[in-house]
Amino acid sequence: MTKNSLMRQPNKITKSTLREMLKQYLQEGGRGERLYWEQITTREGLPHNWIYDIYQDSQARIWVGTWGGGLALRENDEWRVFTKQDGLHCNEVTCIREDKHGKIWVATDEGLNAFENGQIIDAGLIGKSILNMTFDMEGGLWVGCWRASRTGGGLFRYGGHSWQSFTTRADLPGLEILKVFEDSRGHIWIGTYEGGQGAGVGCYDGKSWRSFRSQDGLADDCVYSMFEDPVGNMWFGTINGVSVYDGSTWHTLSKKDGLVDNRVYSMMIDSEKKFWFGTEGGVSRFDGETWVSFTKDDGLVENLVRTMVEMQDGSLWFGTYPYQRNRGGISIARYEGAKSLPDRVLDLLPDRKAPKELRSGNAEHDEPNNV
After folding, report:
1. What's 246's domain CATH number?
2. Which residue range(s) make up the domain with 114?
3. Domain annotation covers residue 365
4. pLDDT (0 to 100) of residue 180
5. Does some domain include residue 370?
6. What whole-number distance in Å separates Cα of residue 21 and Cα of residue 245?
7. pLDDT tens digits, residue range 83-117?
């Protein structure tokens, strides 16, 4: 475990500026500083150790999407596995989400599935290489596709009856969608890729698209994760650090400031009011004053952390994807003396209404880096 205070970064973000931005909802120090770690791999029941997504639904069931092993469901402390033989379009599962009716949607590398009455069913977009998805405030499902040379890429929205498609002809900054996210205003944000390189961020207000690139302030045009903090700032995880956008000004965080690595794939605020960043070199935690980083030496099963989520019991789950056979898996961290769920929910946020991912206890997840 490494620990250091935020160092000054000229012309970007200073210690005082960062603390001012985050002090409304982050908590310096406090209880629960010590973490206890455990690991889950194929030895403990996972069908595969390459983890793309981890999601907990409203029934407290835990879903794990793997690349090559299908979909794993943990319920009542037992694992159940779904593969192509059970109805999945393929065994490469990239994202899991739940709609307002409790229906589970499953994105794969060859189309969209859903989970109904204990069975896997087809849900459309057959043949599409889906990477990420999210539900908007109206209940519409936004689906981002990649691998354009293989299946065409593109962004799609399902309103319940039909699909609406968005392409670069409709002002998307890039055809391959690395991330799709809705903010508290109902705006849709996407991270894109085009022609073998990052294509920046797009923002859709329901009528038109606006694009942001490195020349506007992004740390890099390749954006794998997004997050809206409780006071409305947008955070973007890139391959060259984290960019923070307050609606007018851009700020950047990097290894110079305390990140363990600049390739950032996931972000969240836990119920102990700490900010977490999942990177290619481990995870970094920031409390508004001090950075602490965790790697394999501290309890992570692998350093490349692609997805993370806080469960209802307060445990933190980190999914890894090392691109090496027989490597990877899930690491679980628990705070010493963690609070009960009602106490954690009440303590988490200021009076301002929180973004939906914080209210549900699930942060938007990161995207793969093998573009």
Report:
1. 2.130.10.10
2. 2-360
3. no
4. 96
5. no
6. 11
7. 999 999 999 999 999 999 999 999 999 999 999 98
Taking alpha carbons only, the member of 108, 109, 114, 110 closest to residue 57 is 114
Q: Is residue 251 part of a domain?
A: yes
Q: Which of helix, strand or coil describes residue 18?
A: helix
User: Within a 10 A sphere around the Cβ of 279, how many other Cβ atoms?
Assistant: 27
Determine the distance from the C-alpha atom of residue 38 to the mean position of all C-alpha atoms in its chain, rounded to a whole number.
Answer: 21
Tokens of 353: 């209404």
For tokens 């055809």, what's the residue? 175
In a domain, 366, yes or no: no
Q: Which segment of 67-76, 144-153, 313-322, 348-357 scores lowest on mean pLDDT? A: 348-357
* Tokens matching residue 5: 């205070």
Neighbours of 220 (CB within 10 A): 22
Q: In degrees rounded to 5, what are phi and psi of residue 290?
A: -125, 140
Q: What contacts 325, CB < 8 A, 6 or more positions away?
A: none
Q: Report the predicted TM-score, pTM, of the whole model to 2 decimal places.
A: 0.86
Residues linked to residue 307 through DSSP beta bridges, in sequence order: 319
* pLDDT digit string, tens, across residues 148-165: 888 889 999 999 889 999
Segment 331-362, tens digit of pLDDT = 999 987 655 444 444 444 444 444 444 433 34
What pLDDT score was predicted for residue 4? 53
Amino acid identity at 335:
Y
Q: Provide the terminal-to-terminal Cα distance of the chain, rounded to the nearest Å.
A: 30
Which percentage of the chain shows pLDDT scores above 90?
66
Tell me how far apart the alpha carbons of residues 270 and 206 are, in angstroms, rounded to a whole number. 31
Q: How far apart are CA 42 and CA 39, in angstroms?
A: 10
The number of folded domains in the chain is: 1
Amino acid at the residue 93: V
Q: Could you tell me if 345 and 354 are in contact, meaning their C-beta atoms sit under 8 angstroms apart?
A: no
Distance CA 356, CA 32 (A): 25
